[in-house]
Amino acid sequence: MHRWARPISLASFLLAAAALGPALGEHLLTVAITTLFMIFLAIAWNLVLGYGGQFSLGHSVFVGVGAYTSTVLYTKAGLTPWVGMLGAGLLAAAVAVALSLVTFRYEVRGVYFALLTLASAEVFRGLANNWEFINGPVGILLTMKAAPRELLFLARLPYYYVILGLVGLGLAVTAGLERSRFGYAVMALREDELAAEATGVNTYRSKVAIMGLSAFLAGLGGTFYAQFYLYISPEIGFAFEHQLNMLMGTMIGGAGSLWGPVVGTTIFSALSELMRNLPFQSTRAVVTASKMVYAALLMLIIIFLPGGIMSLRLRRAPAPALERPARARAAAGPAAPRAPAGDGLLEMAGATKRFGGLTAVEDVGLTVRPGEVVGMIGPNGAGKSTLFNLISGIYRPDAGSIRLLGREIAGLAPHEICGRGVGRTFQITKPFLNLDVLSSVTIGTLTHARSLRGGEAEARAVLERTGLSGRARALGKSLTVAERRRLEVARALATRPRLLLLDEVAAGLNPAELGEIIALVRGIAGEGVGVLFVEHLMQAVMGVSDRVVVISSGRKIAEGPPAAVAQDPAVVEAYLGEAYVLTARG
Amino acid sequence: MSLITPAVILQALVSGLLMGSIYGLVGVGFTLIFGVMEVVNFAHGHLVMAGMFGCYVLFQQFGLDPLLAIPVALLVGYAAGLFLYELLIRHVVAAPQFAQVVLTLALFIFLENGANFLFGGDLRGVTTGYTTATWHVGGVAVSIARLAGAAVALAAVFALRFFLRRTLFGKAIRAAANNRDGANLVGIDVPRVFRSTFALSVAAAALAAAVLTPFYLMTPFVGNELLLKAFVVMVLGGMGNVVGAWLGGVIVGVVEAVASVFVTASLGNAIVFALLIVILLVRPTGLFRAEAGG
User: Fold this and answer.
1) pLDDT at A79 over 90
2) Is A376 within 8 Å of A532 (Cβ atoms)?
3) Is the dihedral of CA A284, A287, A288, A289 positive or negative?
4) Which fold would CATH assign to domain A342-585?
5) Residue A335 gets which letter from DSSP?
């Protein structure tokens, strides 16, 4: 997409809507205002759900907190809601941040997060009902008057422009997020939390921050609500209704897309207006019937088109064409910072990890020097992946030390360890399914890149090197198995690792692809990066390793040059079931 | 605060226990399908609500007492469950969790607005011969309607437990809950198990509706509150644990009743949900051992 496409479409939408305002009659203007209000809240919620992947069902809390904050500041302290609105946004954000700090610290996820946020809305409603200072269940009434400086108007049109301005703000924030480092981090977290962490994203901080940003907007919406309806009470401020409207609009339009909330909510309002012309007995009948129709539409969408209406747009992706990795140009790739001379890049000693009664890794010592390729082999279930998870910080060792360049890294979070210079791939590939290859790799560069553009340029060089340039704009979910393995390597390389952990990157590759991977690994090591390489394919291990470590039943049973290890009786015994692999090689 | 005497507290405990038993029944169907299919049915409270309006119509039109309507409720509930499963739920059993949440929330919206369309938002209730009748036992007033509801709920929970533990089909349900693929491998028809489980869960919701109707005022919006109660019951009792759900229901009922003695009822509700939040944070597996059919 052209870099000006977003700003232009946004500006045209706002200008068209602004021009339309005066042409609308009293009734349509009211419809437009309530529609824009619902759109605005849906935009706020879309940030958390559509971009951040966190299923909050408690966003009515932030609407209610916002509405009460500016109203209390106005009625009790005489502060104009124009300013009070800012306080509303900030207090709503503070509530969201406090709530998220606790819930995400306790690793509440998915549907449990949805339940918890839903329950918190009930708690807030209960508290508001019992707080005399804000009039309990009676609520607070504002006087209808013409006081533009106090965000009060007799006419509808000014309200229309205020809420249109807020929608413009929400859309601009969303568009800005899509093209920001923070936005990339948040989208990575939505796609796969563990892979995001391993690629250097602080997922905890990102989750808290996106909740805060979203709640800030919802809080502004709350102020608008109170000023427009001139009334706020616990039942309407904290109503689940707000949350349902956000959900319906976003889901029907398309979560995680800029225009999704606009499209979905507009369809709902248009539907209600159409149904108004049908011979219903009462307004209630119209409203409830159109919600029933809309709910049915939502069911159809979620079953047949889970991406929402916006996912119908044709995506132009380049035809799949795997090119050969640019071996000759390997040197053109980003140079990893050279580790200080000396032997200890990775020094692991006495590392032990237990799961209940099972000791997966026991007293393992391991050293990787800069520029060295160390192959790790061992039967299935020997503890190789657990070792990787210990080094990359996904597990914390029960005993022992893991040092990188002389500094202890055991106990650090995965993104911190990634920041210190450990890149890794996953045996079961974890591509960011709904992000394209370039963006996925760019996320890796954000551990050090100053700007998104700089990161993208660097990511392109990594794609070139790993043979993925032709697939830069393909989504993760459209990649073949071989491409997914390359993406794993590219994403890890983009973080400029000093130590690269490769977990079975050669599995399932054909001989030509295998040759390319081996050449790539050699090239990476040639730049001074230490490589630890888990592999079942003996051809790969023997061909590329300077040294081989053999793990069996969680213990290191042999270590040395490839040829020597292959002859080791202990190794042959451990591999008895797979002995043919060794004999076939010879 | 001199109004808080031991007798008042005893009264609150008894009322809470009776109401809690019924909350347990509301939560049982909810926890069952989460335990077996890992689907959170956000429409569960609204299915109870729909059942209450069904009992209301039966009473108003045909004079059928809600408690005598129990067999009808069970049958219609089971059939409605089969229908909803075939129409909607089966499409999302293997889908990402958010799709299940959105689909069941859409059903929530549909049922709430459907009831509002047909009946309007006013409070409605059924007045049977025993709606206001009480027994006085040692200074404590025991509502007959609630006592009957609590007894039916307790019996239903243990009948369900017996079914899950002792019958072949119950064992198939527990196997599918424990390991979907494994159950498939040993020849269990997992889709059929899921369909029946969902139908059972809706039948339990309908039963809860029948025992609530004689004394509980209904509006189209009552489903939301019942849903939240079912959440608390499920989390307290351990996801999928049937007897745990009943115990969880009793805890909710008692906490709610006692809280409304010391503070107001609306704050009592907030306390119940604050309890839910704390448990979700520190012990998300629930207070009791989580096992479907346990």
Assistant:
1) yes
2) yes
3) positive
4) Rossmann fold (3.40.50)
5) P
Q: How much is the pTM?
A: 0.90
Encoded tokens for A55: 């299923």
Beta pairing, strands B134-137 & B140-143: antiparallel
Query: For residues A237 and A229, what is the distance between their CA atoms, to the nearest angstrom?
Result: 11
Report the SS3 class of residue A534: strand
Distance of CA B148 to the CA centre of its chain: 16
Is the CB of residue A383 less than 8 Å from the CB of residue A361?
yes
Task: Determine whether the interchain pair B120/A291 forms a contact, defined as Cβ–Cβ distance below 8 Å.
Answer: no
CA A460 from chain center: how many Å? 21
Strand runs labelled E in chain B: 134-137, 140-143
Q: Cβ contacts (< 8 Å) between A307 and chain B: which residues?
A: none
Q: Does B83 or A320 have the greater pLDDT score?
A: B83
Domain with CATH 3.40.50.300 in chain A: 342-585
Q: Scanning the structure block, which residue is given the tokens 């509303």?
A: A88
**Token pair belonging to A474:** 């393909």
How many angstroms separate the CA atoms of A330 and A352, rounded? Answer: 37
B195's CB contacts (< 8 A; 6+ apart) are: B82, B85, B86, B90
Task: Give the Cβ contact number of residue A239 at 10 Å.
Answer: 17
In this prediction, residue A104 carries a pLDDT of 92
Whether residue A73 is predicted with pLDDT greater than 90 in this model: the reply is yes
List, for residues A489-508, the tens digit of each pLDDT value: 999 999 999 999 999 888 77
pLDDT recorded at residue A253: 94
Chain A's closest residue to B106, CA to CA, is A295
Residue A173 burial (CB count, 10 A): 19
Q: What are the pLDDT digits (tens) for B215-251?
A: 999 999 999 889 989 988 998 888 888 999 999 999 9
pLDDT at A343: 64
Between CA A439 and CA B290 the distance in angstroms is 41
Residue ranges covered by each domain of chain B: 6-279
Q: What is the Cα–Cα distance from B231 to A163, expressed in whole angstroms?
A: 36
Question: What are the tens digits of pLDDT across the range A273-331?
Answer: 998 888 888 888 998 999 999 999 999 999 998 888 888 875 544 444 444 444 433 33
Does domain B6-279 sit in CATH 1.10.10? no
For A336-361, how does the pLDDT look when each residue is reduced to its tens digit (9 = 90+)?
444 444 568 999 999 999 988 888 99
Residue A84 CA to chain centroid, in angstroms? 32
Residues of A in contact with B232 (CB under 8 A): 119
The Cα A41–Cα A377 span in angstroms is 53
Residues 109-138 of B with CB under 8 A from A: 109-110, 113-114, 116-117, 120-121
Residue A353, classified by CB atoms within 10 Å of its CB into exposed (0-12), middle (13-18) or buried (19+), is: buried
CB contact under 8 A, A289 and B266: no
